[in-house]
Amino acid sequence: MDDSPNDSNAMISNFESLSKEFNESIPERETWSKKMDFLLSVIGFAVDLANVWRFPYLCFKNGGGAFLIPYLIMLMLTGIPLFYMELVLGQYFRKGAITTWGNVCPLFKGIGYCVVMIAFYTDLFYNVIIAWSFNFLFHSFTSELPWYSCNHSWNSPNCYSKIVSWNMSDVGGIYSQCALQMDINASHHFNPVSSADEFYYSRMLGFRNINGSATATIENLGKLQWEIVLCLLLVYVICYFSLWKGIKMSGKVVWFTALFPYVVLLVLFIRGITLPGSLEGIKYYLYPNINKLTKGQVWIDAATQVFFSLGPGFGVLLAFSSYNKFHNNVYFDALLTSSINCGTSFIAGFVVFSILGYMSCISGESIDNVAREGPGLVFVVYPQALATMPGSTFWSILFFLMLITLGLDSSFGGSEAIITALSDEFPIAGLLFIEFMNYYAASWGLLMAVSFETIVISWIYGNLWLNVPLTVSVYNNAGMPRFVKNIDDMLGFKPGFFWRFCWAYVSPVLLLANMIYGFVVHQPLQVQDYNFPDWMNVLGWIFAFSSPSIIFIIAVFQLFRFPGTTIKQ
């Protein structure tokens, strides 16, 4: 049944009184002790391991400096608008994700459950990565790093280690030449494997035996790695004691965990650019290959990196901002923290690729062969490089402390999102599972969740569907009256045309296009030389759709729960 203009006007005119009643009914809520506690919590959550291991590699893989074009476009048109939107929702409703989305639109309360489930999935594998970092940190307290040489029980006959001999001629403060000597025990083998590679896969994960073959598959999970189990327990203990007293405690912890990585990045940047071969690595990082921009996968990578890095769709931003004061300038906060996150990714690229250039120099391999994506970059390539430097123990301790603090911030955020949402609503084939959960459970669910978020806010909560013509209504402030009014109540000004147009049209269209293209070009997951069985890929898609499916399940439940003869009622 069509709605008359009078009905629409009545809905909009009644909103101010309803909004006032809602705000007066909100009980007193705990707030951040200082504004900086909130900002550092958001920065700490947004600036995570993806900034260090994923963004630099994606730049290298997708056209170097040219990748910044799709990255910045996706950042401006989808990332920052949705980042801003979630902060606004949390600050206005001052509740966790589940309750907030129930207030926004009872029919789509399932979005709250969906993002909490995504946060839970992500926390599961993210804490394991932090545990790996702790394990590396503990092994760094030795005079010779255990991944430096091949003289260990876990090393295979194919193992080789890199021992560097520098020609100390100094050109412009940078060593200009370098040479490599390999351990003689691997020089005649057909498939040499680095000592750092074997420490990670064989010693730490138990993923390979001494012959180099895999000891674990999805069908045969292998034995527990007790060092990792204990490190994982340590991670949960740290998270517990950082969150057990709420934001008053976590707001203090982030002063260290959010700021320390920047100190280490600065130190590693200065050290990196003084290494031989570093400039070649930086050239590879920045050299633009415009032809890459014609490939759809480049734009997919840009979109997923933006969402993984900024963090909309996890419920974390909403949870953090729910503890703000009502009139806090969340618009400024959104622009500041998202800009810092973007800048951190760019700077991390210099740090990573100066080291990759150095590794290329000492190994005689091209940077194409040295560079790796994901955990292999920070748990194989980087430790291998650190082991060859003077003072390797110091550099290794510093680097893995940085990874731990980067990871803990994000883990705090995920846990806070789950705790806040639930408390408001209801007062070792480890490597394979990490890759599996990252590929299926987080990526696809995240894109689908943020798509629903922007559609519901713009078209249902914002009443945009009541206004015709649509583009004109967005332009002249007639569109999205409820959400625009929320922002005006808090900040004293209305969001401009750019933000409303992105929320209503650009972000949903780009997200939908990315998902469709991703489905079309999808390839079954592969880790190292291991191909996941078909049934595991099917299970992966079940995981991918499990969190978004909650949206529809809750919608059906709400239809039966609330009175009325139409969906609108």
UniProtKB/TrEMBL annotation:
Cited Pfam families: SNF (PF00209)
Statement: the UniProt record of this protein carries the keyword Transport: yes
PROSITE patterns noted in UniProt: NA_NEUROTRAN_SYMP_1, NA_NEUROTRAN_SYMP_2, NA_NEUROTRAN_SYMP_3
Major location category of this protein: membrane
InterPro entries: Na/ntran_symport, SNS_sf
Annotated positions binding Na(+) 2: G44
Record's protein name: Transporter
Native species: Trichinella papuae
Taxonomic lineage of the native organism: Eukaryota, Metazoa, Ecdysozoa, Nematoda, Enoplea
